[in-house]
Amino acid sequence: MNIGIMGSGAVGSFFGSFLTEAGHEVKYIARGNHLAEMNKNGLVIMRGDEKVTIHRTFTDNIEALDDSELILFCVKSGDTKETAERLKKVIPESAYVMTLQNGVSNEEELVKVLGEERVLSAAAYVQASVESPGMIKQSGRYKLVIGALGEKGKEAAKTFSTLLNEAQIPADCSRQIMLRKWKKYLFSLLFNPLSAATDRSIGQILEDPHLKEVAWMIGLETIQVARLCGYPLTEEDIHIAFQNAEFAKEHTTSMLQDIRKGKVTEADELIGYVLKKAHEHKSPMNTLKTVYLLLKSIENTL
Questions:
Q1: Which residues constitute the domain of residue 46?
Q2: Which positions ≥6 away from 149 have C-beta within 8 Å?
Q3: Where a domain ends, among 175, 191, 213?
Q4: What whole-number distance in Å separates Cα of residue 50 and Cα of residue 40?
Q5: 3-class secondary structure, 102
Q6: Which of 4, 25, 33, 195 has the most CB atoms less than 10 A away?
Q7: How many CA atoms within 13 Å lie on the side-chain side of 260?
Q8: Which of 15, 74, 70, 2 is nearest to 45 (CA)?
Q9: pLDDT the model gives residue 125
C-alpha cells in the first residue's frame, strides 16, 4: 500500500518505520535539520535497545503523496487546517487520512476540509521523542486504537487495523473513537501542561503530593467539561489515567520537550480547545487555566 507520513516527527516516524519494514511504500514528509539528516544517514529508530535504520523517500514536497492510499496525519495541531488544505489538492479522493494527533479538536478541522467519510482517528499510545535530527527514541508499550468518524469509514478502519497488526503495530478498532480520544486527552491534560510549566517528568509529578493534587484538580475540571460535550467521563477515568502514568514515569511529555528545545508548545490548541468548551458551557476550569497562563508566560521568554 502507498502510505504517506504527514509530519515525520517522533510518532509518525516510529509507526511509519514498522509499515516500511512490512513492505509498504512509505513516504515521509519532514523538514529542516531532521529531513537533512534522514536523507544523509537514513531514519534511525531506537525501539528500546533495538536500533532500526530506514532508507526511504524523505522529502518536504507534499506532492510526493499524490498516489497515497492512506495518510498518517501527525503534524502539530496548529498546522492542521493549513496542512489539510494542502493535502486536499494533492491526494486522491479515495485516500483516507488518519490523525494520530494529540487532543480532540483536529478531527473537527480535518472534517471541515476533507469531509467526514475519509477521516479516521487514532488514539496513539506511545512514548517517543526526537532524540536528535534523524533519530527517534522510543520506550515502553505502544499501540493504536482507531475508528471512523463516518459510516463509510468503518470498513476502512477494520482494513487498516488489520494492516497495522500485520506490520507488528498492535491496533484495535473502536466504535466510539472520540470517547476513547477524550480519555487519552484527559491523560494529556493531567500531565502535559503541568510538566511543561514546572519542568517535571510524569514520575516527578506523581511523586510530588502538591503537583499530584493539581493534576487531580485538572482531571475533575476536565471530566465535567467532557460530560457537557457528550462524553461521559468519570472519576474512575482519572484513577485509570494515574495508574497508566505509573508506566510512563520517565517520559518527557511533548510540551516539556518543546520548552526544553526553546519551541512554542501546542498549548493554544490542546488546552485552548477545552478552555473554550468550558467557557461555552459556563463550566469553570480555574486550575487548568492557571497552568495554561504559567505556560504561556514561559513561552514568552523563549
A1: 2-175
A2: 107, 111, 116, 117, 119, 120, 121, 177, 178
A3: 175
A4: 21
A5: coil
A6: 4
A7: 15
A8: 15
A9: 95
Q: Which residue has the higher pLDDT, 152 or 82?
A: 82
CB-neighbour burial class of residue 300 (10 A; exposed 0-12, middle 13-18, buried 19+) = exposed
- Domain co-membership, 135 together with 191: no
What is the CATH number for 53? 3.40.50.720
Domain boundary at 121, 151, 175, which?
Answer: 175
Q: What share of the chain is helix, strand, coil (3-state, %, to 5)?
A: 55, 20, 25
Distances (CA, A) of 290 to 15, 111, 217, 234, 293: 35, 31, 12, 23, 5
pLDDT at 167 over 90: yes
CATH number, residue 216: 1.10.1040.10
238-249 burial, b if ≥16 CB within 10 A, otherwise e?
A: beebbeebeebe
Q: Could you say which DSSP state residue 77 is in?
A: G
My answer on whether 76 and 145 are in the same domain is yes
Answer whether residue 251 shows pLDDT above 90.
Answer: no
